[in-house]
Sequence to fold (248 residues):
Amino acid sequence: MSAGNFRKSQRIVHGNAIDYRELTPEEHSIAGYSPSKKSVDTSSEFELNSNIDNNDEDDEDYVPSARVATQGRGIRRAAGVARKRIRASQTVSPRKRSPEKGAKEAPNPTASQISPDVIEAARTFEKRVPAKLEPHFLSRTRMIIDSLNVFLYAEQGATDPWKSAFSAYRYNGPRKHAPFRELYRLSDPLEDDISDWAENIRWAKQQYELYGSVWTEYEYSLECITKHRIRSLWASEELIRSGRFPAN
Fold:
């Protein structure tokens, strides 16, 4: 019997201590213990270890097939989705902190109430109608621009003489001499033009549309229009959008 067999199977127990020394044949006979005569087959263990070593070497050169790799990725993906769902189901929503005693909550601007007077004033402003200002008397014999002289006041070579003659920018402002043009017949000023000249034209067009009043570009008439606009706080939509209202 080999020493390994004695080492593995023959152990003498002394109390709580175990004696691992090798026993002699005489000690075997005294102890009355007869070890098994069947030897341990180590060939299978050797072959198993050899196979394991060979498999480790072959793993470096092993390339899985496309089908196996695809299945592996699918399994890992499914496992990842399952883990995310488990974490989501286990997530606990954070508790809202209760306000401390005596602490005031911040006001919500959306919940603030608007005064009824302000609402009524806004509705009135939306449907506002400007006050009528009586125009100056216009003589029937006054000099005007008509089909007989329109070419004299239009820009030379203009394809549309009427449009050119009644352009708000034909003379870079109002005419200084007769004939004085009717303001409601002039072209609309540019949207970014908020000069007194442009505002007077817009005001005169509104007066003609609402009341049929006719104002001209006569200098005194323009002065009256400007004073009335400032006194009544009249402003066009173009002036309001520019952010320069009220004018200083």
The mean pLDDT is 76. The two ends are 122 Å apart (CA to CA). The beta strands are 12-14, 17-19. The CA atoms of residues 144 and 179 lie 5 Å apart.
